[in-house]
Amino acid sequence: MRFPLACALVLVLAADVRAGNGDSFFQGNEAALLGGAVASIGTGPDLLYYNPAGLALNTRHRLELSGQLFELQVRRLDPLIRLVEGGGIVDQVNHRAVDYQTVPSALSYVYRLSERVSAGAGVFVIRQSSFDLRAALEDPAEDRSLVARANFEADRTYFTAGFGWAALPWLRVGMNAGISYQTTVNTQRSVLELSGRGPGELRTTAGGVYSELDITEIAADFTVGLQADLPAGVKLGLVLRGPRLRIHEDVVLDAALFDIQPGPAGDVAAYFPVRGEVGNALGSVWTAPFETVLSVGWVGEDVRVSAEADLIHAHDRGLVERDFTWNVRVGAAFRVSERAELGVGLFTDRDDESEEGNDLVDLDFYGVSTGLTFDSPVELAGADLETTGGRRLVFRTTVGLRYAFGTGELNTIDGILEQARDSDPMTVPIAGGPDRRVVFHEAGVYLGSGLDF
Fold this sequence. Notes:
Elements: H1 3-13, H2 29-34, H3 47-50, E1 62-85, E2 88-112, E3 117-139, E4 144-168, E5 171-198, E6 201-229, E7 234-241, E8 244-263, E9 266-280, E10 286-288, E11 291-299, E12 303-312, E13 315-317, E14 320-322, E15 325-335, E16 340-349, E17 361-379, H4 382-388, E18 392-416, H5 417-421, E19 430-452
Parallel strand pairs: 1-18
Antiparallel strand pairs: 1-2, 1-19, 2-3, 3-4, 4-5, 5-6, 6-7, 6-8, 7-11, 8-9, 8-10, 11-12, 12-15, 13-14, 15-16, 16-17, 17-18, 18-19
């Protein structure tokens, strides 16, 4: 691999690692009950994120705090690294790992301004990903080893304010605007080393690549939503989200390619550092595609049912090209007692990467969820009735379970033996190999609390 191609390899190995469309957690109690399918039948503070039109249904002030109490992630990647010679596989190593994390996912507050208007503000952790890929392939008999490690961290937090307005008895309109703050750090190291004994000394050939890509992005997000009531308890929902307008972005790439070859007068080393930094100003680019959510639901006396399609439109951002993709969410909630509601949901979280994309891991997730909400009303004294204008406080607790199965492709890392032996110091023996199947399992416990007052 000559130097210009090696520079291209650094850019590929520093590409974003994505898992689905980035909606990693449920953003509130109703979403945890219904698998996220709340655009047409939801009324809670999480509608600030999902469909602000639903805020108009609130009859009281509401405060809600929720989080992913525990999330377990199990990964299987077959293989992660390979030794290749003459086009054939000499050896390979698979990857198995288990990680867990705790994430505070949402804090939201809704204030009832009048019988027809409610407004609110919230902070939502849309995405938080962190995992390490490590593998080592050692063959003492042949005096060779290949070591690879990749670390990926991505966080996206959304700060928003919005309102819902009952324009007609059967029609509600809402809008929110907010700021999205996102950071991505992707670090990779791969080294191939060959050792052989010469006359009276140990000769070593080594080559590898190191890269670290840091991205910080601040962008403006906009959402417009509708909810409509039809006869027989049928509900319709429409949400138009984005596209996201970049306010500021910093991209920093640190990378190095090196090659060490033994020579008659000593080792010959070649080292090629690469560094790039980019800053972008207001409104220079749309950083996320336009998104449309179509939802239909039905509300009975003790049952709520909803189904929705999330359409994510194609988006070309230079090096990053996204194809049109879709997701579906289906949920049902049953009033099991005067104070308790039980919900179940099905959802998808599919990757929108194009076939020409350069993501290290592309995954499609398919999941199921269940949750239970329990209300604890507290009667107020007479003096408090005059101040609050209400009869009681209602404390709300929601516990949920979420499981998702992810499958996709992994870009393997190859150590090429014949290039490691090449005496040309411009040759780096690390390359991106073909795609291989990868499997993820995610299981999480959701805990949310709320207060109506």
